[in-house]
């Protein structure tokens, strides 16, 4: 068995073990009232459009959003993100377009009904308590886990002036708007918290410094995991009872990094950069150790782990199993051509670039972010693995409705 396959086999059981050890199943009659989300562009549903540093970025221009929304929404994808599939059953495509959507959209419409959560408002799009009573999305594209002081001390500059420190501060501001402490804790207990994915941009900032090697970048892992722990501790203290924490993606399989960096060896089975995937694995091991510690400290809180690494890695190893093309390392949209179709000076949405004819055949949308089809598969895997807590009871009917059977 090739190295990558052996890793997938070994890690596939981890999410089940972690959940069984730490999750307190929700009551059968309990329903979530909202979702609170922290993270970066994999979760940002519109904050980047309202931030001066990112407001005119790629996700503000076509062809972003073309598959589902038919216009850019600030989501870094051709359509919906994982958070959309897990949470919001109210998102529907324009009626006039619905009849011509691909067949797989029908499966996705079932998937977004999984938890029946309202779509959380981007924090920067809200003002009053009424805007936030159904949840809040604090995620910002380009955000880091670590604050600017950390990077300044190392002579590095983050992509955007937003980190988990800012997002935590925003969370505290929202709490103050939601009424008494009793009212705050009641809402937190009835909400689902999504903390991450985060850390990709921290690693990219460090890798962008030509004097820093992957070995030195690995020293960021404990700092990033500590930043995640800080947010988790904050939301649990505020009354959160169900928290979902996505892990790191296989960095060495991202078209952007494959095109920009020539680092060490490549996995013979996948063509991914081994050293960068080793970094992602190190991150996930440290993250899981931290989550085990938090579970022991907070036995009444369901702290769940979403294994993005295994999900995405399986798409790369077995693309046709999920309906993808045989070249899973190539981006759908861009002007780079070549094996990865990525060029930073011809990024998706720029003049002279174009999107592929069918994004559902691609794992990567723009070389950095995933297609809607990929996000749907990730959401399905997350819901299935964590179903005893997130969906209780998890029946055959529910599986069919979600489109993950």
Shape call: globular
Mean pLDDT across residues: 84
Give the terminus-to-terminus CA distance: 28 Å
Biggest sheet strand line-up: 2-3-1-4-5-6
Helix-residue proportion: 40-55%
What does this protein look like?
With 405 residues, this protein is an alpha/beta fold. It contains 18 helices and six strands. Strands 2-3-1-4-5-6 form a six-stranded parallel sheet, with helices on both faces. Strand 2 (121-122), helix 6 and strand 3 form a beta-alpha-beta unit. The radius of gyration is 20 Å and the shape is globular. Mean pLDDT is 84; it is low at 5-29, 88-113 and 393-399.
Distinctive features:
six-stranded parallel β-sheet, 6 strands, single chain, 405 residues
Layout of strands and helices, then pairs:
Blueprint lengths: L2 H9 L2 H9 L11 E5 L43 H6 L7 H4 L5 H8 L9 E2 L6 H4 L2 E3 L10 H5 L11 H14 L3 H9 L1 E5 L4 H8 L6 H4 L3 H17 L4 E5 L8 H6 L13 H24 L4 E5 L1 H10 L54 H14 L1 H4 L5 H7 L3
Helix pairs in contact: 1-15, 12-14, 15-16
